[in-house]
TrEMBL record:
The keyword Iron applies. Residues 63-94, 102-136, 179-208 form the 4Fe-4S ferredoxin-type domain. The lineage of its organism: Bacteria, Bacillati, Actinomycetota, Coriobacteriia, Eggerthellales. This is 4Fe-4S ferredoxin-type domain-containing protein. Keywords: 4Fe-4S, Electron transport, Iron, Iron-sulfur, Membrane, Metal-binding, Transmembrane, Transmembrane helix, Transport.
């Protein structure tokens, strides 16, 4: 009987270099269903917190434009911000509420996104998939919008060397026949270079204005 028991026991083991070890069980249907349910739950939680937190006007890093997914997956690890070579990623304060605190946001007053020549270091650094694949020719971080009340080209003097046009690597900015700045919405991907170099805030710092002549806003197109 003991010999038979040993034989039956050995049949359930794998030989590995003379040693035996139990076979690893495969994923069961219950495990797969449970994993899918957990993923769906995280997305649902992300959608609820995004709505509660007022996710309406926040610019997220490349690949973070799906608010439900972003809120459900981001763990505020700060790795995307640390990976950004141009300091274009900042962190959210308490303005939108404690739920949104420490979430990464784009800060085009400190830097701009050069897309890392396609490497997207922020996306590569994200450990949870909160930042997904981003195509700068199709996807948008946001959209550049001209503020006619602030842009020097729309002012009384109408003078500005328009550094924003030279800064845009996507040929999304130009001057119309009246010398006014216009944005090509098909080309603009919200990289923020135009906002970063805009001199308007420097011209008007005497009135404590933090506005610039062109600002990147959330794109709902």
């Amino acid at each position: 009987m003991k010999t038979r028991e040993k034989t039956d026991s050995a049949a359930s083991l794998q030989e590995d270099g003379g040693a035996t070890r139990p076979q690893k069980p495969g994923l069961s249907r219950r495990s797969l269903i449970g994993g899918a349910a957990m993923a769906a739950g995280l997305l649902a939680f992300g959608g609820a917190t995004a709505a509660f937190g007022g996710e309406t006007d926040r610019l997220r890093p490349p690949g973070g434009q799906d608010a439900d997914r972003f809120w459900g997956a981001c763990i505020r690890c700060d790795r995307c911000r640390a990976a950004c070579p141009l300091a274009a990623i900042g962190v959210e304060g308490l303005t939108p509420g404690i739920i949104g605190a420490r979430l990464p946001i784009m800060d085009f007053r400190e830097g701009y996104c050069d897309m890392c020549d396609g490497a997207f270091r922020c996306i590569a650094a994200c450990p949870t998939g909160a930042l997904t694949a981003f195509d700068p020719y199709v996807d948008k971080i946001g959209m550049a919008v001209v503020d006619e009340a602030e842009c020097q080209l729309y002012g009384i003097s109408g003078t500005c060397n328009a550094p924003c046009i030279d800064a845009c690597e996507w040929d999304a900015l130009s001057l119309d026949e009246n010398g006014r700045l216009v944005v090509d919405e098909k080309r603009c991907n919200g990289c923020g270079a135009c906002e970063y170099v805009c001199p308007t805030s420097a011209y008007r710092n005497y009135d404590a204005s933090n506005k610039r002549g062109i600002n990147v806003e959330v794109w709902h197109g």
